[in-house]
């Protein structure tokens, strides 16, 4: 469903992504881990189109999207959330979701009548807010929401398009245990046909969610395998897991 | 037929009587409003100021009261911008109800106000802007000019330089209508008299940072002389750079006299020495009228009066003398303009009168050279062309 | 998208105030003040679509004013087109010019956008300054006004033409309100807040920004056409950067992101300018009258002050005061 | 004529002279932009102030050299005051507000200059020692213009050494690369920004003084150079010393040769160049940060 071959991206002389290969069959839950600065978010940006690779190829559902900007990839079925909350801070929860729904339904090209006339869009947005557990917060400007709630909306916005492939960048970072729990439930509840690539520092979450895991280090793939294989790898243990307190469950 | 004429006559008489009754006390008391349409901000603000003070001096010299009515000035800032100039003219006419307008420095503003003034039928005496067409193709019975037309200034210079032995001349002026008009006028006379144009350059108006590149090109063309038109800040800069590039002694510099205007020839100093100029006025004109005028001006403002000041000074005198002829009446504006056509006097620049055929001034044109005068520099007259008058140039007289 | 309870009362009040002023005004106010207010309000409102909604701070908006003005001047004077046809042509050409220019400038964000629009505005100005076919720096005159004689109206009458201009401004307001309240307008606001996210949601943001840029330019082109009819004259100065700057000041002064704020800003700016540039006003304040030539100093300082302490402008401030007192405190 | 070596030499010198001035103007603008992401649209006003201060100082002391020392300092003080009272307040509000404030200051500066120095153009006499001309390939060339080129080169070298060899320079380089990093180093970022801003103002003032004897001094001289300086910044790549130098060279030469050889396109070429750079190489010719 999502395939990257020999992706390379350098900033100046620093190769942040160096020949990364990745192949996600449809419906796979795939984890992406690695130490800070391993190039995980850069890889996400290459996959979602925020960045263009220096070389290599990105295929989405068999279509070459290497040179397509992020909006084209989004319309082709790729959704993503961001590491840092990336919302419309001055708009309310409803408005955030309405924008997402309106773009998804293609009504944003309508300039000749009020947005409020598109009741279906608003209703859909409200329904999605309820599904995210944000039904109470519809009229709250996003910047007034708690961090965890914003995080939920962040994922919710990525889901508005019902993407075929979803990239989640540290969905639980900065969350309280309860919020993490809720987030985990949300991720588990995603449709099984959805292909998921998730960056996470919380190993509990990764091992719980992922079918397969890719370990990234210095822009290279260190290892790719099942959670068990990754857990068993001495190299990964040395380089990364050993430093992480979340290693031993 | 007869009765209607009679009744008509009666009505006219009654209206006249009524008008006289109501107008008499009014005109005795109400001031005559002269609207000064000058820039007090923008690029030409300095020239606007110069004309303003000169106009005021004329009011002192020739009296600011005519037929029991005081002449008062109302002002509006043209900002030297066409659209602001038009708004300023509208303010003077609609709000201040000016009887006469005087002013307009920039040709752009003059073009902008032309149609409006013409339609409003308020006399305007132009004191600087030299667009040829305003007293040519686009002449208006309501627009008179006390300053000059571009062609009038330089027409004589081409033949004169050709005769003086300058066979190849390089032309330079800013790339705008006025610049091209002046260069074209010069070229016409110069080529007809057997001269050859060695090259020409038109730097963009308003954004030229440096004359260096153009001077290098001028130098490479190896002409006998350069005929250039610049004024104000760029003129100061040009003359200095011309000397610095070593051109002053090899290629004779010439141009309309604004190049070395009395306003700043002192600042150009020795670099301006030897510059040939042609203009309708230089402060060194040797006549009683001019000497008296300059003395009074110097006493008041501590410097020589410039050609800009003189144009406003003469415009004021024109207004005052025309008003004296009408006994201070301004209601019949056509009569007022007709009175202006009859005014003649000897002013600082020599004999002055308005040509009824074009509404442009008829005046002497002076060819002079910048020389050291005492411890400063100034233009010294070499030759006078008396009573230079424009051909109608497409102006068909409306009255 | 956002609720704005003050909008309708403000507009009603503004329309009534203008109507009353128009009714009681003399020739001068009709011909100069009210007409200028209407023309600049159109410009400011169209710029507000860019600045206040799409977040595109343009310092070259006057370029499209100039283009619109020259198109009308050229078509009517050289080709003898009726003004009624030249007006839409002006809007169209200005919009097309914006389409060409915009297809690359909308890619630039923030400060870069300011710089390139400033440069492009000056480029257009430089072109007209040199274009001898359009009279170069002297401009062109003799541009006719819209012929409304079939309605029994004489547009040469300042009262009639200023009314036409005011109604045109009202029409522009209504059009822009429809746009900003539409899904498209909401998307522009979202792009302003977070362009990257809107793109990640699948929206080709450049095309959306381009749409706003073209619409704003077309309105500016229309305003240009009306400006040149109003003065029967056109010159390169219309496209000069200071005009763009003044329009931007109007938007910020009145309060961006509401459309009506821009119109208020245009009124406030022009009334203040006329007042400040009259010697009598300074005399009345007991201050030296030479300051009348320096209204730009006062305007500039005022602008700096507004940006410093009241960035949401007159209308934004009023709206905030109302909200603080109202039930939606927060 | 174009192949005439004397003509070429003179034009190259003219181009270098304009480049030197543009460099002085643009480098401060560029580094401030690189560091603080804030474009000072009133930078041209500072240049104009430098020229007017030179008029005042040269008039008072009858010495160009006094003006060369004092006038840029005066401009730096003006910049410092503006920074403390206006720009610093707006730092948290983001670059857009800062840009708008500087825009308002253009209007203010324009009128202040008119009130203080009047409306007529002023001149600053060329210093005696540099007033003459020199012979280059048998052509007369004004010595003072060579001085301008020299000042530009000297400033370039001094800034290069300053950036390369001093602690402040290291911090500035790091700050242009990554703003957050400098803060993380525990350096007083505010102070660094302030110092760099004042230096930029000083350089703009210096450009004004140096330009004054060649160009007459008048209200409004700020805008034409501002646009050119902005183009240089964009062309060279914001934040880059050598970018500013290269950009100034390209624009200086393009302007000098373009105006004389292709007068019809001269003004448009430069804008088109800027547009092309922004479109295809948004980081400029010498990008300091990877383009995102």
Largest sheet of chain B: 9 strands, mixed
Task: Give the proportion of residues in helices of chain B.
Answer: 40-55%
H/E topology pattern of chain B:
HEHEEHEHEEHHEHEHEHEHEHHHEEEE
Distance between the termini of chain C: 18 Å
Mean pLDDT of chain B: 88
**Secondary-structure content class of chain C:** mainly alpha
Query: Count of helical segments of chain B?
Result: 13
Return the CATH architecture of chain C.
Orthogonal Bundle
Task: Extract low-pLDDT stretches of chain C.
Answer: 326-330
Instruction: Give the strand tally of chain C.
Output: 2
Per the CATH scheme, the topology name of chain C is ABC transporter involved in vitamin B12 uptake, BtuC
Overall mean confidence score, pLDDT of chain C:
88
Would you kindly provide a brief summary of this structure?
Chain B has helices at 2-29, 45-62, 82-95, 107-120, 150-154, 157-163, 177-192, 212-221, 233-244, 265-268, 288-301, 307-326, 333-342, and strands spanning 32-38, 65-66, 69-77, 100-103, 124-126, 143-145, 168-173, 196-201, 225-229, 252-256, 276-279, 344-347, 350-354, 361-373, 376-388.
Structure description:
The complex is a heterotetramer of chains A (249), B (399), C (330) and D (292). In chain A, 34% of the residues lie in helices and 24% in strands. Chain A is α/β, with parallel strands linked by helices. Chain A is globular. In chain B, helix 3 (82-95) runs parallel beside helix 4 (107-120), helix 6 crosses helix 7 and helix 12 (307-326) crosses helix 13. The longest helix of chain B is centred in the N-terminal third of the chain and has 28 residues, at 2-29. In chain B, strands 7, 8, 9, 10, 11, 12, 13, 14 and 15 form a nine-stranded mixed beta sheet that branches. In chain B, strands 2-3-1-4-5-6 form a six-stranded mixed beta sheet. The termini of chain D are far apart. Chain D has eleven helices and two strands; from the N terminus they run H-H-H-H-E-E-H-H-H-H-H-H-H. In chain D, strand 1 and strand 2 (139-142) form a beta hairpin. The chains are: A alpha/beta (249), B alpha/beta (399), C mainly alpha (330), D mainly alpha (292). At the B-D interface, helix 2, helix 8 and helix 9 of B face helix 1, strand 2, helix 9 and helix 10 of D.
